[in-house]
Write a structure and sequence with these properties.
The structure holds two protein chains of two kinds.
Chain A (H helix, E strand, L loop, with lengths): L1 H13 L4 H11 L5 H14 L4 H9 L3 E4 L4 E8 L2 E6 L5 E4 L5 E3 L4 H16 L4 H14 L5 H10 L3 H17 L4 H14 L2 H8 L8 H47 L7 H22 L7 H23 L8 H23 L15 E4 L2 E4 H23 L1 H11 L1 H6 L4 H23 L11 H14 L4 H22 L1 H18 L15
Antiparallel strand pairs in A: 1-2, 1-5, 2-3, 3-4, 6-7
Chain B lengths: L1 H4 L2 H23 L7 H27 L6 H20 L12 H5 L15 H25 L4 H20 L11 E2 L3 E2 L2 E2 L3 H27 L1 H11 L1 H7 L3 H27 L1 E2 L6 H14 L5 H20 L1 H18 L3 H20 L1
Antiparallel strand pairs in B: 1-4, 2-3
Helix pairs in contact in B: 2-8, 3-8, 3-9, 3-11, 3-12, 3-13, 4-6, 4-11, 6-11, 8-9, 8-11, 9-10, 12-13, 12-15, 13-14
Amino acid sequence: MLKKLLLTFVFLTFGATAFAQDFETLVAQLPEGSYADRAEVVVAISKTGDERAFAVLEALSGGKLHFHKAEGIIVEVREIGSEDIAFNILDNTEIGPVGRRDTKKINVNNGLRREISAVLGNMYLQNPDPAIRIEAANAVFKRGDPAQLEALDAAISAESDGEVATALVEARAVATLNSNAPAAEKLAAIATLRERGDRDAQGVLSKFTDDPDLGKAATAAIVEIAQIQKLWGLGQNVWYGLSLGSVLLLAAIGLAITFGVMGVINMAHGELVMIGAYTTFAVQEIIRNSMPELFDYSLLIAAPLAFLVAGSVGVGIERGIVRHLYGRPLETLLATWGVSLILQQTVRSIFGPNNREVGNPEWMSGAFEIGAMTITYSRMWILVFSLIVFAGLLLLLKRTSMGLRMRAVTQNRAMAADMGINTGWVDAMTFGLGAGVAGLAGVALSQIDNVSPNLGQSYIVDSFMVVVFGGAGNLWGALAGAFSLGIANKFLEPFAGAVLAKILVLVFIILFIQKRPRGLFALKGRAVEN
Amino acid sequence: MFNRLIDKRMGIFLAGLFILTVAVPIGNLVMAGQPVPSYAVALLGKYLCYALLAVSLDLVWGFAGILSLGHGAFFALGGYAMGMHLMREIGTRGVYADPLLPDFMVFLNYDKLPWFWLGFDNFWFAAIMVMLAPGLLAFVFGWLAFRSRVTGVYLSIITQAMTYALMLAFFRNEMGFGGNNGLTDFKDLLGFNLQTDATRAGLFVAAAVALTAGLLISKYITTSKLGKVLVGVRDAESRTRFIGYRVEGYKLFVFTVSAMMAGVAGAIYTPLVGIINPGEFNPANSIEIVIWVALGGRGTLVGAAIGAIFVALTKTLLTGWIPEVWLFALGAMFVLVTLYLPNGVLGAVEDIINKFKSKPEATA
């Protein structure tokens, strides 16, 4: 009690200038007295604003703070290797190894530990780094200790960062609810928590549903939060669907060109995707071995390479095989299936049958949150990438002379040839373009899927479904097909499970084809007939 | 009638098949020293099942122009119908010795037999289901597809989707078909132990008989008036329709018959191999059937059977000998046959023979 008076006296009289010295005196007082006395000292230490207070309190809470008998100072005992080494807590200088009898531990009990963590929390609330302040505010939110109201008020009035301020206000609301504040204030707190609208807020509110004054408001708030959560869940599902749709779009868009524009069934399409993925793997291997500092750019380097590698394989397939089979789509299907088997086995012979590891660059790893939604960077960039590829192809087909030739050959081969278009060359380029886009898809898919010789097989049925559903001959059809199938799949998953959802989607497409045999966006006119 | 069904090709093939059917069981069971080992009997029986499957596909692809990439599904359904009977036959001899439930159901905590397993303890019920299940699927699928005039490549792709969906479905444990392990550990069929040489030889003969029947039925269909209409559908569907034929009906009929035939092939295949699992539904398997037919000669029936036996034999030899080469060989087969042998090996051989025959006449 005397100490408390003394401390108050010290505070009142000396003010800020005397803090440094007071800090050291206060620390020296720690070993003395009861737990209650120690708690007083802890609070006092926290109020000095001294940088070293963090170290002292953390060490005390962890039971590492000792009184060094020979030196007569407070030390932190750290276990380094098998030895216990004492460090002066005030300036962090090494005192030397200590035995069990050389020091006396400054004991803490659970009550004191709680006190320390509350005090530390308040101290972190004043940390210059906003990220740490938010973390501290969240810790206070979880604890909901009314004793921290004062500290929170101080922190809120001093806060300049909006995000931190919100976190602080929310933490204050929990503390208010737990305190004996008047009902009006508590109702305001409930409103604050309702605004926050997440599961944590729901958890806090659920404790007050039986309260005579607050019960009604708390229940209403919980219901509202549940609705918000449901909306977020819906949003998350849409996102998963978009993400799956972007993968499908990437896998199918090359096919939409070869199948849709040229009417050629390329069963080796999946293998061209696989080649793109293996190109990425090879690029990363070279970078890892010779220029590791370029690793973050590996995908940017791999993308054009994959386009070229897969594209030239595609041109090879067209010139060597498909060219001889125009007008016989079923034979083309079989021959390209043969090519797909050969490509698969070639890759298996070169790279081995096992999965190859393709790393994520820095900017592709991790995730961020929007409200209650979690979005991984890799999925987000793949969505962006798929849209870029789509837009690029659209521009190429609609705005360049190359695209004009492609469309001319598609619509009327004989007439196009009469106009002086080298149809053989256009065929090769169109097929190569489709193959190159498959290679680009491989770069993206290597980031989220196993890179193995079977990679292509797992996408071939899906990508055909997209093209058939969307309607051949139309890039927009592929876009609509990919995203609607992706979203449909993800919305069915919670009810039916992943496999059944996929089966349902397949059955749906089979039935849909009956109604619209040429897909969502069918080409109209006589050209369709044969 | 006889002349219509058995032309020169068919005659030679059936004679060869008959000799094989007599010689193999004798070599395995009667002759001293077993010149035909038991595994070879099972293997040859398996090839004959494949041959029947190929004939069934040739019936729809070669004569009606329906390239089904899902015929493996009908084959597997027949196999599953037979497998379900064989599972029920195990009875109390299973690991869990449950008189009613197969082992995998006990393992998955089923408390009673699912309704679609009822009746399969009766062989004749199972035998009917072997044809009814694939036939029904083909009928419903074909009715939907042909009526709305889904043709060509689109039809191929949705048949592929069909078998893919079935594969995913049968992989699920909840479906009640044994999940990814499929049905296995069979003991006996009609009281005959499946492990004995005699039963195996009996199944081999059954496969040969089924193949013969399949060939003759297909031949009968394709040489009938209906068969002529089918060829018309294959070569010019719109024209055939405009002449006044109900194209859908013809296609639906032949598609359903073909699916039933594939189901029978699967039903004999299952006891011979001793297992049926969802891998049989794999779309890749179904595409492989197409190359059997294409290699042998599309629209020749006999050629399809020979193609199936040839490819299956090559696969057995190559995968045992240098496994890496098999996919190269299969892939090359697909490419070369479609590019250079539009009528298959049988067609090419007959072309050469005809050339030799006609040459002297031309010079004379």
